[in-house]
């Protein structure tokens, strides 16, 4: 499986893990920014999936550097989310990791 084929499942896993983390954590005003990032990631994930279908991945193959960084950031974000222990201090780390994914995803879409 090439990295471009693996990136969508990894991004989906980021979203699903973040969604689970927020669903299992006591929601308070401190986590509102993280909830907004979850929504942004969901929207970008949908846009990315749509662009893959529309462009048949031709454009994405031309920008391998951006794809590799997206893959790296998505893997890092997944690791941070997996390590989160449902505490507020981890929410900032998760938010930073998702910010990197969103920034790189914007370069690819």
Strand-helix topology:
Layout: H1 3-24, H2 32-55, H3 58-62, H4 64-83, H5 88-108
Helix pairs in contact: 1-2, 1-4, 2-5, 4-5
Q: Rough shape? A: elongated
Largest sheet: none
Alpha-carbon Rg, integer: 14 Å
Estimate nothing, just give the exact number of structural domains.
Answer: 1
Helix content: over 70%
The mean pLDDT is 77
Strand content: under 5%
Q: Work out the number of β strands.
A: 0
Distance between the termini: 21 Å
Structure description:
- By secondary structure, the protein is an all-alpha fold.
- The protein is elongated.
- Helix content is 84%, strand content 0%.
- The protein has one domain.
